[in-house]
Amino acid sequence: MIYKRSSALFVEAQRVIPGGVNSPVRAFKSVGGDPIFVKEAKGAYLYDEDGRTLIDYINSWGPMILGHAYPPVVDAVVTKAQKGTSFGMPTEIETEIAKLAVSMVPSIDKIRFVNSGTEACMSAIRLARGFTNREKIIKFAGCYHGHSDSFLIQAGSGAVTFGSPNSPGVTKGTAKDTLLADYNNLDQIEALFKANPEEIAAIIVEPVAGNMGCIPPKNGFLEGLRSLCDQYNALLIFDEVMTGFRLAKGGVQELKGVQADIVTFGKVIGGGLPVGAFAARDEIMNYLAPLGPVYQAGTLSGNPLAMAAGLAMLTAIDTDKALFTRLEEKTAYLHKGMADALSNHTITHTINRIGSMISVHFAKDEVVDFKTAAAGDNDTFKKFFHGLLAEGIYIAPSAYESWFITDALTYEDLDTTIAAVAKVASTL
Ligand code: PMP
């Protein structure tokens, strides 16, 4: 068995960690088999505990946009670590990364750092509720905004992969304040506003969805959300945990020219260390403690190692003028190669892509929301996943996830991947 050591490690892990993993999507529950234990990674490659090399299309679920162990990030962390790992006092580097982030992203004046995307989104809706003095929020079925209670209502990503889009443990009281709509459906949003004209604090949306596979917004969708929020005095929250600093320097706000009131970040902003952040214009951010009444805090928030990694990462992205074009070209190349390979073997599929996010849906119709994503053939996906893995290609072990393209991938890696897709397609 090729994964002998990984499987043995998994047995050990399950004795002391629920399901053997510290985050459910890491388990192979929906595709079957044992998860692979990784030993180290460099650039576009993972080196697993059984001595295999895998081309990585997950990239820690998004952060490693420049590849694993990117030297400027590693150097920044090592240098910082020697000077103390946490102080619980202000440090200059927090202002440096805040200034840089504010200069890169449209429509934000201030940013606060937290430790995860979950914390960022959880804090963003508290701030929106405090600012508007309203209680309800709207989220979209299949969007994922972390595991805080208000968001585990028809949640995407691991929550839907493991059959818990509505998690037990979330009180009815909390659930009733989260209103739901289908992604890309403005009529439903309008109806929700009409039914609750003065109660909706905010809409939270992945401006490009990545947690039901990759689903770009239809033309006019984000603009429509903006104008409905303006009409009903609600805030528009863009959850750019996945898309921020990935689809453009300024995220989807820049890419699509639509402004949000609050923006949340995670993944790329921490360069692979635990970082999240939320940001808005002054008027909104000044509502936060210690300036304003909305409380939010964190012992390790703005941690020096995390800030050093994030600063090195954002600096690299800010200074490399050709990065997003390169990522787009690589992803488009992969898209075409995979589409040709699947079509040549008459496999029913739809590939969704925007910038460096891409996903293969084994569905015959356009995939525009959770329902159309869920119509994909999961048995084919399972075979596809395991077939690629056997060829040394590591994609997310769920059909409800986006792939993340890193700049470390070479065209040779992409050709290897396309050849593997062709080989696997011949067996589907
Ligand atoms: N929002 C989005 C759009 C995400 O994709 C994720 C994580 N995949 C989160 C929030 C939660 O981030 P974290 O896992 O860092 O808590």
From TrEMBL:
Q: In which pathway does it act?
A: Porphyrin-containing compound metabolism; protoporphyrin-IX biosynthesis; 5-aminolevulinate from L-glutamyl-tRNA(Glu): step 2/2
**Alphabetical keyword list:** Cytoplasm, Isomerase, Porphyrin biosynthesis, Pyridoxal phosphate
Give one Pfam family, short name only.
Aminotran_3
- Protein localization: Cytoplasm
The main place the protein resides is cytoplasm
Q: Could you say which protein family the record assigns here? A: Belongs to the class-III pyridoxal-phosphate-dependent aminotransferase family. HemL subfamily.
Could you identify this protein by its name? Glutamate-1-semialdehyde 2,1-aminomutase
